[in-house]
Amino acid sequence: MGRSGVEDAEQPEGPPGVELLADADRDGSWMLLVDATPQSHVDLADPRHLEFEYVRRMGHVLDLAAEPGAPLDVVHLGGGALTLPRYVSVTRPGSRQRVVEIDQRLTDLVRERLPLPRGARIRVRAEDARVGLAALRDRSADVVVTDVFSGARIPAHLTSTEFVAEARRVLRPGGLYAGNVADGPPLRFARAQVATLRAVFPHVCLLAEPGTLRGRRFGNLVAVASDAELPIDGFVRRCAGDPMPARVVHGGDLSRFAGTSRPVHDADAVDSPVPPDGVFSR
Predict the structure, then answer these.
(1) How far apart are CA 259 and CA 198, in angstroms?
(2) Are 99 and 85 in contact (CB under 8 A)?
(3) CA-to-CA distance for 231 and 51, rounded, in angstroms?
């Protein structure tokens, strides 16, 4: 037994630093770690189950992107174990999903050991996330999800107004952008990401656990943006009902959160902060 609730499994050959561990607390579930950082959790028996809290919040965004069950065109920047593509494939059958994941060997390992749901229309392209995004047609997606890490940090070139503008170009009118923002006290990176999104999109909110928002701990905040009004009431209801309830920050509260932070541009973009030791212990 390694981490609490996770046991070592026989490892197929894969990329260096990649571990695939069976979840002893949940039959048929697996944890993907990259360089000792938990990256994905997959329940093969029930792809609707989202173990990580921030991934569950991204699931709320996908749930509210259209009427229940309606198929979507979704772009996922960052693939990992394809947790959210699996989720969409069973909650919105017939959805067309494109995944940009730079590590082809990782994708091959995931496909071999963690089969996709039957009938899933998921296409994975081995490319840098920003390069892959730039190759997509204008107004070709209903949702763009960004969850990309190099090691345990978000690469700088995925944090700028130029990158966000590419995401808006690919979205259809009324489409939703959802991005994972990893940060800790004093939340300078997260505040700057809010300013960056607001420089491109007229409507932005944050979904996050209260302790993270107050700068008490390092964590994952989900930033949501659109050119149309966001379903704030729906986010509030769903986040309040989670096992670890989250707050929805928008409007004046979001302005106060961003404070004097300025939008990030390619010329001054930096990677997200290094997580403190032990933050991913289970």
Answers:
(1) 12
(2) yes
(3) 23
Query: According to CATH, what is the number of the domain 47-268?
Result: 3.40.50.150
> So where are the chain's domains?
47-268
DSSP H helices, the chain, are 53-63, 83-91, 104-113, 129-134, 161-170, 188-198, 210-213, 232-240, 251-258
pLDDT tens for each residue of 226-255: 999 999 999 999 999 999 999 999 999 999
- Amino acid in position 108: D
What angle is formed at CA 157 by the lines to CA 253 and CA 37, rounded to 5 degrees? 80
Q: Which amino acid is at 16?
A: P
Query: Which among 201, 202, 219 has a CA at the least distance from the CA of 210?
Result: 219
Segments of 11-140 assigned E as strands: 18-23, 29-34, 37-43, 73-77, 96-100, 122-125
Nearest to 224 by CA among 242, 260, 191, 248: 248
Does residue 176 have a pLDDT over 50? Answer: yes
3-state DSSP assignment of residue 61:
helix
Report whether 200 contacts 168 (CB < 8 A): yes
Q: With pLDDT > 90 as the criterion, what percentage of the chain qualifies?
A: 88
Beta-bridged to residue 37, according to DSSP, are 34
